[in-house]
Amino acid sequence: MALFLFILLVAVALGIVGVVVKGLFYLLVIGIVLLVINLVLTGIRLGRRGRSRPVR
C-alpha cells in the first residue's frame, strides 16, 4: 500500500509540474501514464487476493 501511495504522489507531482512549467507537457503525460498503470496493477492485485480463498 505504501508503494501505491508513493507512486500516486509521484504521478500527481509530475502532473502539476507538467501543467505549471511551460514546455514540460511530457511530464504531465508521464504522470497520467504512471497513475493509470498504478491503478491497473492495484486492481489486478486485489482481484487475485479475492480468488485465493477456498470455497466451503
UniProtKB/TrEMBL annotation:
The chain crosses the membrane at residues 25-46. Keywords: Membrane, Transmembrane, Transmembrane helix. It comes from the Bacteria. This is DUF2207 domain-containing protein. The lineage of its organism: Bacteria, Bacillati, Actinomycetota, Actinomycetes, Streptosporangiales.
